[in-house]
Design brief:
This protein is α+β, with helices and mostly antiparallel strands and about 300 residues long. It has eight helices and 17 strands. It is a multi-pass membrane protein.
């Protein structure tokens, strides 16, 4: 099991990302340079292009791999190769055209795609440039379709510790890090996760989960509970069914303001009984007929395989 980073470690890493904004430019394919050798004007090459294989054609020595190098490092490398033809050559690389630096943002965003990376671009700038987060209509309610809890930004092979809820919902500037070339941002769909509402409800079944959904809100989506419902002992089953955690919620007290509403999580099963139950086996016996009406193979896999998120 991967060990999670603690809050202080994440904060240190974010501060490092904030401070690491200015780095030497790295040469890439498509960049163009004027190449000159001090005292040798006849060897000058104008507008030389870095080819897709990362090489730049230099005077006398031909193709030299420069992709990924800083400009200073590339000049030293070309100079070293030229030393077999002249003594202590001084090579200059003058940029004539840099390739466009880009980032990618995909998922539940209004205008997903590749975008030009502007100077000092930060994560919030990318969301704004891409038209903001997607919204939709779910059971006559306007909801945000973006699952910020599972959104991420990847740089190379590494996922950065940016918390999009802290950034977007709470406006925490520490998570609004500067972007770099080829950064990849993904905003998943909130409707890729579900909850299951069963028992004495007007419309039982599975429903799209959205961020911070509560028990009372979920009951409303079903059209409400039946007159036969026992709302004093609503069971919320979390985890897979051979090793569940069961929470009993008194919805009547919630509705009267005497108890806090219960916060749901993806793949929770909410069961509203018509009678009381004494133990897990009794509850499972009551729950099984309702579970059998859920025909989705994916739902069955999540509930019974033990691989729910």
């Amino acid at each position: 099991m991967r060990k999670s980073k603690n809050k202080k470690e994440i904060e240190r890493e974010l501060k490092k990302l904030q401070a690491n904004n200015v780095t030497p430019y790295r040469i890439g394919s498509g960049d163009r340079f004027d190449i000159s050798i001090y005292g040798e004007p006849e060897l000058t090459i104008k507008n030389g292009v870095v080819k897709p294989d990362g090489t730049l054609t230099a005077p006398m020595v031909g193709d030299v791999k420069v992709s990924g190098l800083s400009i200073n490092h590339a000049m030293k490398k070309i100079s070293q190769k030229m030393q077999q033809y002249m003594k202590k050559p001084i090579v200059s690389l003058i940029p004539s055209q840099f390739r466009a630096q880009t980032y990618t943002i995909l998922g539940k965003i209004n205008k997903p795609g590749n975008y030009m990376l502007h100077e000092n671009s930060r994560v919030l700038d990318t969301i704004a440039e891409a038209g903001g987060l997607s919204i939709g209509v779910f059971r006559d309610n306007t909801i945000e379709l973006a699952d910020l809890e599972h959104a991420f930004i990847r740089r190379g092979d590494k996922v950065l510790p940016v918390n999009f809820i802290e950034l977007v919902r709470k406006g925490n500037p520490l998570h609004n890090i500067p972007l770099k070339d080829k950064d990849y941002i993904y905003i998943p769909s909130a409707l890729n996760t579900e909850i299951y509402l069963l028992g004495e409800l007007k419309t039982s079944g599975y429903y799209g989960y959205k961020e911070n959904m509560t028990l009372s809100q979920a009951i409303v989506y079903t059209g409400g509970y039946k007159d036969t419902a026992n709302i004093n002992k609503i069971a919320v089953i979390r985890g897979y069914l051979n090793d569940p955690t069961v929470y009993l919620v008194d919805l009547e007290k919630v509705l009267e303001g005497k108890a806090a509403d219960f916060r749901l999580k993806p793949y929770d099963i909410v069961f509203v009984p018509k009678s009381t139950f004494g133990d897990w086996n009794t509850l499972l016996d009551m729950l099984t007929p309702s579970l059998q009406v859920l025909t989705s193979g994916y739902i069955s896999y999540q509930l019974f395989s033990g691989e729910s998120n």
